[in-house]
Design brief:
The protein is α/β, with parallel strands linked by helices and 162 residues long. 17% of the residues lie in helices and 33% in strands. It has a 5-stranded mixed β-sheet. A 5-stranded mixed β-sheet has the order 4-5-6-8-7, with helices on one face. The mean pLDDT is 95.
Amino acid sequence: MPDTRVGLISDTHGHLRAEVFEALREVDRLVHAGDVVDPDHLSDLEALAPVTAVYGNVDGHDVRAGVPEQAVLDVGGVRVAVIHGHQVHPDYRKLLARFPEARVIVHGHTHVPRCDAVGNVLIVNPGAAGRAQKGHPASVAVLEVSGGVPSIRHVDLEALGR
């Protein structure tokens, strides 16, 4: 049993699917990596767990006024950095340089669900949660931290909706 579960979501683009609530119903907190579009969706996600969000390149003033460009948080003793990714297009070298103390870096922007280990750092894109993009199904991810060790699991939202 993990010590902490964090739901990772990005690129909702104003479309908050019902499957998100099913996929992330047992998380302790949520991280939204930008391109929210509708700030009310952050309030809707608060029904599941506390939300840490950053803004993305398509977010307007209404979202940007309420959330920062980047965030760093502690999850079960693991430093987690969050940025949308358009600032670094996500070039892993730039992400690592921007967050040298992070053990997990969460980004969105590319809409491609990934988790890559670079040294001892996990670089995670939960994928686009709003609508399927670039040949990938709509998805989110769950970060589980157990005994200070992070792991990532992606969830295909379209499979949940069937």
